[in-house]
Design brief:
The protein is 55% helix and 14% strand. By secondary structure, the chain is an alpha+beta fold. Strands 1-2 form a two-stranded antiparallel ribbon. Strand 1 and strand 2 form a beta hairpin. Helix 3 (42-51) crosses helix 4. Bound molecules: zinc ion. Residues 2, 4-5, 12, 40-41, 43-44 line the site of zinc ion.
Length: 73
């Protein structure tokens, strides 16, 4: 399942259709020394491409919070 949809509580098959695939994405500016791996549905993959990392994360603050809590574990 898409990480953004999961963090926001959205049903990703509802917005993408039941046959949609989840793709792996990488965020390069989140951590200073490593890459953050994400799973994104088609809609959020396009959104990341259009907005860029920083604006994408400010739009999806619940996702940003989840990434930070993962990094602290
Ligand atoms: Zn999604």
């Amino acid at each position: 399942m898409c990480d953004v949809c999961k963090a926001a509580g959205i049903n990703s098959s509802f917005i993408n259709g039941p046959k949609s695939n989840v793709m792996n994405a990488k965020l390069y500016k989140v951590y200073s020394n490593r890459v953050a791996n994400l799973k994104l549905c088609r809609i959020h993959d396009i959104e990341l491409f259009l907005k860029g990392e920083q604006r994408f994360l400010t739009t999806h603050l619940s996702l940003a919070r989840e990434i930070v809590s993962k990094a602290n574990n």
